[in-house]
Amino acid sequence: MLIVVEDLELTMCIENEEIRTVPSVFLYNRIMDALVKTNYLDLALSVYDDFKAHELVEESITYMILIKGLCKEGRFEEMFELLGKMRDNLCKPNVFSYTAMIKVLVSEGNLDACCRVWEEMRKDMAELDVMAYVTLIMGL
């Protein structure tokens, strides 16, 4: 798969066809993270599709990169769907993961989604810490 982002003058070759190598999970995560941070979420999601096609296994950071991007774009149903996959395939997100989601939602001014994420955190019995409370309160 060849990714070309002309606005950034960035060309990345994800798979070398000649030697048939598959990039590592770490490399895929770095590419998706860079794409999300530069507002190319749909491209990051297509890289994730390629990731899955190579039958690689997600790490918690893989999910969090995409979840943060979906939060930032306001695509909450997809975010909660991915959160469900994270629970099914890996583990329950921890308080740090939830706090990161809430922080993004607060920065986007979406208190309804913040409260929904807060409820998910309570359902998962994540051990709430001061930072989680402070992050939510900052949004109020």
UniProtKB/TrEMBL annotation:
Q: What are the protein's UniProt keywords?
A: Repeat
| InterPro entries with a match to the protein in the record | PPR_rpt, TPR-like_helical_dom_sf
Question: Has keyword Repeat?
Answer: yes
* GO function term, MF aspect, one: mRNA binding
The residue spans of each PPR repeat are 59-93, 94-124
Gene3D superfamilies associated with the record: Tetratricopeptide repeat domain (1.25.40.10)
Q: Name one Pfam family in it.
A: PPR
Q: Report which superkingdom the organism of origin falls in.
A: Eukaryota
NCBIfam families the record matches: PPR (TIGR00756)
Family annotation (PANTHER family): ATPASE EXPRESSION PROTEIN 3, OS07G0179000 PROTEIN
- Family statement: Belongs to the PPR family. P subfamily.
Q: Provide the protein name.
A: Pentatricopeptide repeat-containing protein
Q: Which organism is it from?
A: Dipteronia sinensis
